Input
Amino acid sequence: MAISLDQTIEQKQRSWFAGIMSGQTFWVLIAVILACIFLSMATDSFATAKNIYNITRNVTFVAIIALGMTLVIITGGIDLSVGSVLCLCSMVLAVVMNAGYSIEIGIAASIGTALLVGAFNGTLIAYLGFPPFVVTLGMLSVARSLAMVASNNTVVFQFGPDHDKLLALGGGAWLFGIANPVLYMVVLALLTGFVLRWTKFGRYVFAIGGNEHAATLTGVPVARIKVIVYMISALSAGVAGIIQTGWLGAVTTNIGAGMELQVIAAAVIGGANLAGGVGTAFGALIGAALIEIIRNSLGLLGINAFWQGSFIGGAIVLAVLFDRIRNLRHGE
Amino acid sequence: MAVLELTNISKHFGAIQAVNDVSFSLEAGQVVGLMGDNGAGKSTLVKMIAGNFRPSHGTMKLDGADLVLHRPKEARQHGIEIVHQDLALCNNLTAAANVFLGRELRRGVWPLRILDYRSMYKRAGEIFRELKSETRARDLVKQMSGGQRQAVAIARTMLSEAKIVLMDEPTAAISVRQVAEVLNLIRQLRDRGIVVVLISHRMPDVFSVADRVIVMRRGRKVADKQIAASSPEEVTGLITGAIEQV
Output
């Protein structure tokens, strides 16, 4: 039977479901679900309300920053400074509130610091053509140093008149007993997902990662978008810092150390491609969840904690391996 | 009347003189072949008309009014469209997303203006049908053949009522059958009264579709004549420098 040109054109290339099935995120999600089922059966302590509460809350800090990192990675960049920016923003919040200012001023100062750091990174990368790796590696060092300068390398645990408000913000559970950080994470993930799928900005983020030269030629404001993306990345670190400060109730100058690697791992496990052009908000959450479940389960199963790094590293390679095998089959 | 008029246009990058004192005018419904060897300044000249570069010297006039372009978007607003040599496609996006790249359709009211996927798929599908191309609007460009990719790049120029379409080597990397398709498309554009500037290395393409040929060598215009009054041999001589100037 002859198939007309119009029929060929009209036929959708792949169904919605097939699209989901073929993604790396889907397989990682399956892995997360299987791990949860296995752990529920193998241990008594996994499927308890307290443990679930702990896992979901622990996931959030990495997951929130992974959302920002995913945007950066989609554009083909990288942001190594997020762990230090988290520390700096926490410290700015702590120092400002410790000096007797209200929580609003503290948060404004903290967010302002994050945006400034992001704008600095982004400007150097987008307008002066610095490699993202170098700029953010420098900022990794600078931001933590500034946090030490701001606090004189002390631990801050007194947050002035609004002390209790801050602790409630990060440590409370205002809705159905779900930890507050989890609520923030869900809201931010929905927002990120919406922006990526439904806005011009999101479309441009993908276009820059796919072919930056083409984006420039077609009139996409590449430099401006890149600056905004690094600002969002720093902002996500700042927001995570504020929430974490409220949860921990104290800030030291070593919080967030090495966190950038966990965040990048979460984004990559969740399907973001370091070559640019691919990534989802949902994937960032799933990636962060897998890492946290690995960590949690090793403890529950009584496996020596020293193995943790091996398992997380294995998960990174395995997740990307699925993607490679699929591409090889397609004869890339 | 001339649609586009270039007067004494020059462009240098540091010490390199890419385009040197070039003047010509383009009239509606004309296909002009722009020929020259690699590095002759064709692409630089086209990028100035498309708003990617600003001329170092000289003036451009569109429909008699001065034309100063700061970015590609402004060129498009003036009805100047370009098909880039590398097609400027994003492999990770769909055909429709590529067609509308930089001028996405949106719906809703500010601040909730969201991408209008349905209209973009529909319009892109219509254009592909018009081009008689087997390109599906929802397919990723990554999975497409050379001819389909070409169709996506050409479809961009048909989004709005263009006055001038600049084509940078549109037939360089596609099959013989697809070359015929592209040449037919060029004739379609011409019949609508659009000026088509065809930058090409391929002598047969230029001589089958162009009305006029402009030859560049080392940044200078060395010939500008009717196709009927020229020959492939003459143009070859002009490109290589065997014939100095006509």
Remarks:
- DSSP finds 15 helices and no strands in chain A.
- Residues 8-14 of chain A have pLDDT under 50 and may be disordered.
